[in-house]
Each structure stands twice: as C-alpha cells, then as structure tokens.
Amino acid sequence: MGGVGCGISVVAALFALLGLLPLLGWLNWFTTLPAALLAVLLGFLGVLRDEQRAISLLALVAGVAILVWALFRLSIGGGIV
Q1: In which domain, by residue range, is 64 found?
Q2: Counted domains in the chain
Q3: Which of 9, 20, 23, 28 could link 70 by a cystine bridge, Cβ 3.0 to 4.6 Å?
C-alpha cells in the first residue's frame, strides 16, 4: 500500500506543478486533489496495516502536503485560475 501511495503522490506532485501555470489551475480539481486524497488513503491504510511503515508514512505525509498545497493554490486563484 505504501509503495503505491508514494507513486500516486509523485504523480499528484507532477500535476500540482503543472497546475502552477497560469490558466491551468483547474487541473488541480480533476487530477491533483483526487490523486492526493488517494495517496493519503493508501498511506493511512499502510500505516495501520504495519507493512513498510516508513514508506507508508512518507506517502501519507507527501499526500497531505500536496493536498494542502493544491487547496492553497486553488484559494489564491478563486478556485478556477
């Protein structure tokens, strides 16, 4: 679970970087937020199951950080820009 969560958090981070470009903030709604939520969920399940705890914790922390960043970016642009 943790390895998959880490992979998904990397994909979410790439989409978050792409969403920094002007007029591509809407990408955060459709790609970054769902991927970050999935990474948080998989990281949390991995921590609870005790399998590869360090990797699962990394997926959880990275997913939360990307989620906070995407929400902050959306709040700056009014949710669409």
Answers
A1: 2-76
A2: 1
A3: 28
Residue 66 lies in a domain: yes
d(CA 28, CA 18): 9
Record the tokens describing residue 11, joined without a space.
């994909």
Of 57, 52, 59, the residue nearest 36 (C-alpha): 59
- 50-78 pLDDT, tens per residue? 778 899 999 999 999 999 998 898 888 77
Q: Using an 8 Å Cβ cutoff, are 18 and 32 in contact?
A: no
With respect to residue 81, please indicate whether it lies within any of the assigned structural domains. no
pLDDT of residue 81: 58
Tell me, yes or no, if the pTM score tops 0.70.
yes
